[in-house]
Amino acid sequence: MATPGDMDENVDTAREHALVLELLYGELGDDQVDDAQRTIANDDALAAELQAFGQVRALMQQLPAEDPPQAISAKLMHAAAGQAPAATAPRVEQGGFVAWVKKFFMPLALHPATTAIATVALVVGVAGALYMTGNWKVSEPTAEHDEVRRPAASSETKKAEAPPPPADDRMNTAPATPRGKQANTDDNPGTGTDLDDAEPDKAAVREHLRNKAPNRPPRTVRLAKPKEVPKIKGRSSTEITPPDAARSAEEGRYKDMAKRRVQHTRDATRTQSKKPPPKKKGKAIELQMRALHKKARMAAKKGACARAQKLGQTIRQRDRFYWSNNVRNDPLLRCGKVDAFEAGDKAVTVPTKK
Amino acid sequence: MLHDEADEALMVLYQKGEVRAFEILLERHRKPVFNFILRFVGSRELAEDLLQDTFLRVIKGAANYKRKAKFTTWLYTIARNLCVDQSRRKKHRRHASLDKPLGKGEDSGGTLLDVVAGSEMPSDRKAVSRQLHNTLHNAISGLSDEQREVFLMREFLDMPFKQIADVVGVPENTVKSRMRYALEKLRLELEEYKDLAKALP
After folding, report:
1. Contact B19/A84 with Cβ under 8 angstroms?
2. What is the pLDDT of residue A260?
């Protein structure tokens, strides 16, 4: 039976044999090599064992290493190439927080329903922003748009947009509002001055149109139809073509007149429909206006038309209700000349009835 | 470049589909693995088949490879397991011994190993070398599987005892013990070449 002393001796022997192997195969550190050599040198058996094992190693080194056939390498490479996609491991996402956010939201973003909701939210957001900032405009079909859309009338439209011709050419025509100074509409409230300026044109325009075109159809918003263009030398009024050099000046003049008339009628109609009726003011103001009116009539009778017109404008500014009911249609105050106060600020002449 | 990368990095690259990384791994390890298998099983044809099987298992198991594991440990574990399996199967079959005389009598001529071995050396030196090789092969084949695998890994693959213990799956002291017994047995087998061994550098 082995005693503890024998076991310790066996342990020491195993440790010494392990020391021989480690020294033989160079697995000892630099500081351990000297101690191992000293230990082995003191023991003849260990030294003999180390020498014998060294000789075995020297003989084993004589065994040549053989090369495997290249065909095996080719087969293995073929197999590796075929298995490479299957061997692909899931890649680890890199990039930190951004990559995590992208990984989290990408499936949601790629879903069609999410895309549709995002699109609707974008459209509603833009519309809301425009509405809140006051830039919200919804284009409605108007006569202008119809004219613009008609390709054949493009040249005529450009003419209408051009500055109005000289006053000589505009004699006996309806007063027109320059396109650059648009009449007030629902979409474009404009200024109070524009409303006031458009007001006096109304009666004159109606009167003028009754005289010039008694058989014209009822007015609508679409007044720019070619039917309203007068026929010229057997030419169909629907044929609106760009003016060529051969066209006579009279033809162009008539077309301008018709165009201007249509434009003015449209503006006047719009303005009329939107113009609020003047309110009646107090009795004291009415008395004052009557006195001014009386003065104006007196001046007109004396032939001081300038003073009469000035008084008329004063009445118009102070009490529009009195002016529209009493002064506006007073034939005495017209003096048979230009009705400046009625035309307002517009430099447009209105032909008077003879 | 890829040639400077460690085995583990190359294996990870191959996991990502880089076939070139596997080519480098194959180039590095096919020769030592082949010699390990050849000296373990003692048959070139068998060694070629087992070499092929070893790397095919590496290819198929690449997806499960973890970078923490040392590639050579994993590779030689596969090769060693294949060799052990082959050795167990071999015990149930009859194989012609490499050192068995081809003729009926003991003195009738050379052995099977003589036919298989190459013939690049001069005749007298070639004869000595062939004899030594035969003796060495026989000595190695005479080791038990446990002693042989440990001896081959330490002697020809230059694997530390600790790594051998990882491959074999036994404690390091057991590996050293098996190694010592293997060397002792080989010393006895190669006793006749004692003088030659002393003359060798």
Report:
1. yes
2. 80
